[in-house]
Amino acid sequence: MAATQAHRYHTLVVLVENKPGVLARVAGLFARRGFNIESLAVAPTDDDKFSRITIAVDVESAPLEQVVKQLDKLINVVQIRELDPASSVERELMIATVSVTTEERGQLMDLVQIFEARVLNVGTDAMMVSLSGAPGRINDFEELLHGFGIVEFQRTGKVALPSLER
What we know:
- By secondary structure, the chain is α+β, with helices and mostly antiparallel strands.
- It folds into two domains: 82 residues, Alpha-Beta Plaits (2-Layer Sandwich), CATH 3.30.70.260; 74 residues, 2-Layer Sandwich (Alpha-Beta Plaits).
- 30% of the residues lie in helices and 42% in strands.
- Strands 5, 6, 7, 8 and 9 form a five-stranded antiparallel β-sheet that branches. A four-stranded antiparallel β-sheet has the order 2-3-1-4.
- A hairpin with a 3-residue loop joins strand 6 and strand 7.
- The longest helix has 12 residues.
- The mean pLDDT is 90.
């Protein structure tokens, strides 16, 4: 399954002018063309004139070349790069509230230690945990949390940069 998922989603990093409405235009392009977005993360860069949009694109909804061509037509788009997972660093953040009994807390704490996650909050019958890391690692942790019962769950979406040259 992981190999299929890896080929289905491609990561694009789009440098855009940091102006009102740019994200809406990018998202609108995807909606109008029927392109599916798996995840989307946006933040200003070190230069406040620009923002970086990291988009995990579902290539089953449209050929990647078509997505890039359409993005390139948008006036506020400065640069588009496709990142190869083999030569880039990808990270994601998740926060989950998990239902746990007093007896299960030790098991959940074991998972937290194994995955190097963090406990953010503790209640009488639930714990809030977070993990940042590679998307596959987040997927593995999420799958194991389902065994306890996830009350609420949020993921940021992927952020990525090219690996440094060696």
